[in-house]
Protein: POLAc domain-containing protein
Organism: Gongylonema pulchrum
Amino acid sequence: LKNYRFVFFFKIISELLDINLTPSKPAYGLSPASPLCLFDCAYDGIELSWRWDIESLKSVRTHILKSWAEYQSRSIMLRNMAESIGLLITDEDCGTNALNDYLRPAVTSTKVYVPIRKRGTCDALELKQEKIRRKMAKLKNTGLPS
């Protein structure tokens, strides 16, 4: 099963990199702005022995603790501000629940999956360049600064 996935993945990547098959980028939604953070992992049957400099480890820990304290302080301030403003308005007045909007992934549609080969595409590089040239020419003709 892993080999099939690898072959399939490799085939898709090869097709996406082939400018004759895929002259422009497939359209897809952006990933969430919050970063993916991998800080722990394990490997079946493999015991890893990491080596590190103790001073570097102390420095990294200190940096992480300082960042954590700063974000905790900001978090408390923001919570207090949101609660204070919340006393002045109701959830119905807002028309949205900001925390839930943030926690839910920004997905255009989760109901129907469209394979990458069947998705629409963005404008090709040449078309984007042509649009920019036309826009610059239009600005030049109107006398506006570009």
Notes: The chain has five helices and no strands. The CA atoms of residues 24 and 125 lie 7 Å apart. The first helix runs from residue 2 to 17. The chain has two domains: 1-32+114-146, 54-104.
